[in-house]
Design brief:
2 strands, 4% strand, single chain, elongated, mainly alpha, two-stranded antiparallel ribbon
Length: 180
């Protein structure tokens, strides 16, 4: 598999996982006991591990080779700057979101098991205060990341429609190119 194809798959897999987190945010009541909290967060933690693996591979590619996406020749000066800010921003924001989520799980006072079976914090060694702080950092990082994803998506739609530079062909798998 060539690097660009791998990055497309990672791109869409990360997007699908972020959509999952966007629509399935766990709402754990403050008065829930430790067992209920652990149960409610088990799928979230497991999906976070999957996003962590995707992010790790994607980050290794980024740190070895730099961003793969280059601004097109039709982009005006501000568009080239915007392209770099959005793409590099996502290369940093997604790992920050994953790391802050992992830190929130490690700081929890109850056990965290990915998908209910993978021990991430099997004994719940954290504290309520530390967990609350890390959870807040994670939520802010996630919200900023989602905002940046929407900006990224909108920017590529604008490029494809306004500049007609086929920006969506770069992002979408070949099987979908005939619909563009």
């Amino acid at each position: 598999m060539i690097k660009r194809t791998l990055v497309k798959w990672l791109h869409w897999l990360a997007f699908a996982l972020m959509l999952y987190f966007f629509f399935q945010e766990p709402h754990v009541p403050d008065d829930a006991d430790a067992a209920r909290k652990a149960d409610m967060l088990s799928t979230h933690a497991g999906m976070g591990m999957l996003l962590g693996l995707v992010t790790l591979v994607w980050s290794v590619i980024y740190f070895r080779n730099g961003p793969l996406g280059r601004p097109g020749p039709k982009l005006p000066g501000w568009g080239k700057r915007m392209h770099r800010i959005v793409n590099v921003g996502l290369y940093w924001l997604v790992p920050i979101t994953v790391i802050s989520g992992g830190a929130a799980g490690l700081a929890s006072e109850y056990p965290v098991m990915g998908f209910g079976v993978i021990p991430l914090n099997p004994v719940g060694w954290g504290s309520v205060g530390l967990h609350d702080v890390m959870e807040e950092v994670h939520e802010i990082a996630f919200n900023v990341t989602v905002l940046m994803i929407f900006v990224h998506f909108g920017f590529h739609i604008w490029r494809h429609v306004r500049l007609k530079d086929n920006a969506l062909r770069i992002m979408l798998p070949k099987v979908l190119h005939r619909y563009l």
